[in-house]
């Protein structure tokens, strides 16, 4: 094909006109209807795009937090990122997808998600003549470990079992159950936070011997519809041994008590006898 320069130049006004028309166009900013779920320590993409899918290269794309004083999360303007006034906790963790801007895709990537990233965001896109925005809700979700049960041996009233599970967000519940699935009365749940502020939960129960000697610890997060459980079986002999050993200690205690009383009585008797002797 042979296109002369003059022919080519003829197209320039037409091209200019087309670009002007496209920037004059109105557009809608759209995103997901449902909250975006993010996992602490992982990366997350907050989807946002233009409809029609005009290029966003020449537009201003601003991501910010709602209900924050200095809310800037990421700003793209005049063909580059301008993050001088970004919220410090987002420094170095945010980016758009440069190759996607051309397709009207203004999604934001947030790296190494933190708990503080949860909440509402706005994707705000502006041209010289038009703007629109879309709100996106980010929820943090962390599913913890399978519970670990440890046997603390015999304590007053039965065998003491402790259930522990780590790495949850939001805070889960801990339930102890017998082999028939009946809840067992347990101590209150201890909660701690790890270095990433995720929940560590621990709950102790004192159990008596049952027919099966099987007990289950269940850790559940209802909002996330997540549950993890572990079953333990106490060896029967261990249980009996524990009770025996307690009987043993009780017997020893009784013998010691008896001896003390006996000595007291003897001393008293001796003293009474000596006083009598003196009087006589
Ligand atoms: C816009 O969307 C249409 C239809 O999905 C697609 O064919 C076209 O390539 C897209 N345009 C850009 C600039 O990505
Ligand atoms: C926008 O780009 C991201 C990253 O490539 C991609 O995951 C997402 O699906 C894109 N969104 C749309 C609407 O094309």
From TrEMBL:
Protein name: Ig-like domain-containing protein
Subcellular location: Membrane
GO molecular function (one): signaling receptor binding
PANTHER family (UniProt xref): BUTYROPHILIN, BUTYROPHILIN-LIKE PROTEIN 9
Family per record: Belongs to the SKINT family.
Gene Ontology CC: external side of plasma membrane
The keyword Manganese is annotated on this UniProt entry: no
Organism: Scleropages formosus
Transmembrane segments: 252-270
């Amino acid at each position: 094909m042979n296109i002369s320069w003059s022919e080519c130049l003829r197209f320039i006004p037409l091209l200019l006109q087309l670009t002007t028309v496209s920037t004059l166009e109105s557009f809608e900013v759209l995103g997901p209807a449902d909250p975006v779920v993010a996992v602490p320590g992982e990366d997350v993409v907050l989807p946002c795009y233009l409809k029609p899918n005009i290029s966003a290269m020449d537009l201003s794309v601003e991501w910010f937090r709602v209900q924050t004083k200095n809310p800037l999360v990421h700003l793209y303007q005049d063909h580059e990122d301008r993050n001088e006034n970004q919220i410090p906790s987002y420094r170095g963790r945010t980016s758009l997808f440069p190759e996607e801007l051309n397709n009207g895709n203004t999604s934001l990537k947030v790296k190494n998600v933190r708990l503080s990233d949860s909440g509402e965001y706005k994707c705000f896109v502006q041209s010289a003549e038009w703007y629109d925005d879309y709100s996106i809700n980010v929820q943090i979700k962390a599913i913890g470990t399978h519970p670990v049960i440890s046997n603390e041996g015999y304590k007053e009233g039965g065998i003491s079992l402790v259930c522990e599970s780590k790495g949850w967000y939001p805070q889960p519940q801990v339930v102890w159950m017998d082999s028939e699935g009946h809840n067992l009365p347990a101590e209150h749940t201890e909660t701690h936070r790890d270095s990433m502020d995720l929940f560590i939960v621990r709950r102790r129960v004192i159990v008596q011997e049952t027919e099966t000697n099987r007990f289950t610890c269940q850790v559940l997060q209802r909002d996330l519809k997540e549950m993890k459980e572990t079953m333990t079986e106490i060896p029967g002999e261990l249980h009996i041994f524990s009770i025996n050993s307690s009987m043993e200690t009780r017997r020893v205690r009784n013998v010691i008590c008896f001896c003390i009383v006996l000595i007291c009585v003897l001393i008293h008797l001796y003293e009474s006898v000596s006083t009598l002797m003196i009087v006589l």
